[in-house]
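User: Need the bound-state model for PBG:
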Amino acid sequence: MVRETSISPDNFIYPLFATYGTGVRKEISSMPGCYQESVDEIVKNAKEVHSLGIPAIILFGIPEHKDAAGSSAYDANGVVQNAIKAVKDAVPDLYVITDVCMCEYTDHGHCGLIEKGTVDNDKTLNLLAMEALSHVKAGADMVAPSDMMDGRVAAIRAALDGGGFTDIPIMAYAAKYASAFYGPFREAAESTPQFGDRRSYQMDPANRREASKEVALDIAEGADIVMVKPALSYLDIISDIKASSGVPLAAYNVSGEYSLVKAAGKMGWIDESRVMMEILLSIKRAGADLILTYFAKDAAKVLNG
Ligand code: PBG
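Assistant: Bound-state model below.
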């Protein structure tokens, strides 16, 4: 009766990795229970997600072809575009969000265009806008830019409005830190930078005030939902943003946070299910309305009894 925080499958967004081919379901070794899946397999998985009462998925793409300009990212027949169409066809009630970023599509693995050995923020904006528009044309319900280029929310908003998609919202990865917790994801998405790191565009983990600034900029540019990422080492940031932003807040319980729990659970060192639920509850308690988590299906099973 006096419990202050509750958690429900309604709060979850489940990440899925779309790849080319058919009948492909390749487990990601550092993320047990998560797979790179071809579009036909994504559809089966999406049906299960929906049947567990989870309202939304977020799609990432592993394309067949990578190049310097990440051209598969905005290909109308790309893996993500095809996955969106197939999922919306088979499970129309499932809300489909797409991750908008260049790193999965560039041969150098960076989140933007490279000029003179470094990521060129402004030249990347047009590519991100084209990618977002192609996702929405394929039927995406919401786009989520994760690249951390300055000005990308405004560029994407303008492109969507220009294409007649004025009702499609943007969930901005607003406070995204340059974190070692993304390690397993980069194996999953095959997006490890081939040189350097992401510190010229992602945030310094030491900075707290800067998160509020990044969030305010994204909201001013038109973000409808803002995100803090990673979640667990950044609960103070989640709490700050919840108190100050006034828009719905998402938190990304990232790959490394998942892998740590899975590994210790497998070793028998922790009670995996209880630790999972405690982590998700803590993210909610800190202030997140929505949680992107690889635990979504496991946690929904616990919550559904
Ligand atoms: C793409 C992107 C990343 C994640 C989500 N979108 C990786 C990165 O920035 O290197 C990480 C997700 C996770 O670790 O679970 N930029």
